[in-house]
């Protein structure tokens, strides 16, 4: 039999069944008060951190890097996203979806466009210590398929992808 909990969707704090407000952040929990058992895979998603996933090292480029060069790197490394970093700060992310929506149908010269002009600015960042549930919520709320992952020293250590989470789920579903 699974554990009965109410998990706050904002701060991920576990609350007692029947709580109307989260003990930590006062988020309204009344719509979550249905008592239900948590399946083992749900419990793992809530408890396991992003650090348990096999993240590939990120491809990091400067905002002035030409789009054509970025696309070549993405194809060579078979990745769906790159991180744009200026100095010590991540300023954007560029994904396959960005290419499809911002570039593909506009007949632009790929060798004239700096990546900084077509990136998604100020991407949502997650930390290695965040739970998979937190990451999934961020991805679902923002309709993102890729999130840069930061370590405790605020360095980008990888990009979390929908594919990576799907592989995790497949690996643990049989448990």
UniProtKB/TrEMBL annotation:
It holds the Pfam family CBS. Signal peptide: none annotated. Keywords: CBS domain. PROSITE patterns: CBS (PS51371). The keyword RNA-binding does not apply. The keyword Electron transport does not apply. Residues 54-110, 119-175 form the CBS domain. PANTHER family: CBS DOMAIN-CONTAINING PROTEIN, CBS DOMAIN-CONTAINING PROTEIN CBSX3, MITOCHONDRIAL. This is CBS domain-containing protein. It comes from Candidatus Nitronereus thalassa.
């Amino acid at each position: 039999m699974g554990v009965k909990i109410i998990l706050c969707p904002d701060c991920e704090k576990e609350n007692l069944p029947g709580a109307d407000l989260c003990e930590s952040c006062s988020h309204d929990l009344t719509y979550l008060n249905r008592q239900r058992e948590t399946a083992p895979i749900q419990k793992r998603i809530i408890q396991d951190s992003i650090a348990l996933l096999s993240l590939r090292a990120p491809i990091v480029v400067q905002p002035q890097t030409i789009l054509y060069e970025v696309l070549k790197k993405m194809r060579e490394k078979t990745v769906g996203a790159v991180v744009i970093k200026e100095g010590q700060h991540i300023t954007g992310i560029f994904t396959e979806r960005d290419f499809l929506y911002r570039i593909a149908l506009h007949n632009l010269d790929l060798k004239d466009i700096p990546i900084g002009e077509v990136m998604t600015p100020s991407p949502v960042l997650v930390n290695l210590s965040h739970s998979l549930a937190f990451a999934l919520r961020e991805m679902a709320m923002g309709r993102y398929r890729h999130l840069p992952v930061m370590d405790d020293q605020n360095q980008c250590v990888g990009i979390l992808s929908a594919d990576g989470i799907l592989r995790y789920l497949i690996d643990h579903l049989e448990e």
